[in-house]
Amino acid sequence: MTKADILMPYKMLPFVQEQLEKDFTVHRLFDADDPDAVLRAQGAKIKGVALGFGPFGPNQLKHLPNAEIVAGFGVGYDHVDVAACLEAKVTVTHTPNVLNDEVADTAIGLLIMTVRELGQAEQWVRRGEWAAGRPYPLTQATLQGRTLGIFGLGRIGKAIAKRAEAFGLTVHYHGRTKQDEVPYPYHATLTGLAEACDTLMVVAPGGTATHHAVNGQVLKALGPNGVVINVGRGSVIDEAALTKALEDGTIYGAGLDVFEDEPNVPPALLALPRVTVLPHVGSASQATRNAMGQLVVDNLKNWFGTGAPLTPVPEMSGI
Ligand code: NDP
Asked: Which of 44, 128, 152, 316 has its CA 20 to 30 A from that of 237?
């Protein structure tokens, strides 16, 4: 059987590359001196795309008239122009579920780091302050007694809620739809959620529908004891409004794994004492990334073996 031609626009895990090369002819665009020339010359052969971290849309699609599937790495797919893929009858897949626990662990870790200043306390030891006889100042915030508002109670949001309950937190949530099967109070608006909580966990997807949903009004509603954690997408929070709210005491602190213009973190945000920052590592363990990579491979293998994707993005139900 001839091997289908797969385009790999961006570098992927060696594990994924090796797996794909067993079953497909892989064209590594990121290795090419002139990627556009490769697309022009090879594009018509390409049947599938193994997509790493990077955008995909009409610029690539116009060179790929025979593409059938784009297998994305990651559960979020705001970097893929799904409408353009739908129009071109190209199926898009992503990697849901296999990362839920890892991201939820990161979210809770980031929350505790933020309220108990664990990153700053570690630096205190490393700088020799403790050895010099200076104890770390008492943290003015605590996890205890907090009410956690989850913005995006989906697969990962539910894994966070389960952990939060075990830590003794009260959980509320906001999304577009009330979920009858969950025991947590629902808020039809994000501002309503913020009013009811002092801790906002952002785990909603990026894209135009959620762009800057966490704005000055939401932060004001959260109040002076308010802590914002973002493991969703940077675009969901108005970063300038967040910086201002932290500077003027509208809210207490923030823990951020994702940013509006990654990998750039605004210096004004970094200068603030009650901000904890991580370099988008929500799912970034070897084991979880391998599981995500395996799902990319399995989506492609299943598509070319049976004609069906394993984990299509929801918009594909209409294709
Ligand atoms: P799900 O689709 O399972 O959950 C998303 C939730 O967000 C749903 O409950 C949905 O509820 C809600 N939501 C979606 N759109 C809107 C909207 N416009 N307004 C209000 N609520 C909305 O996704 P996952 O839990 O699997 O993943 C969530 C996100 O986490 C990903 O899209 C990704 O951006 C991010 N992520 C970040 C990682 C990191 O490394 N930091 C790693 C993995 C994921 P409803 O439909 O009722 O509105």
From this structure: 316
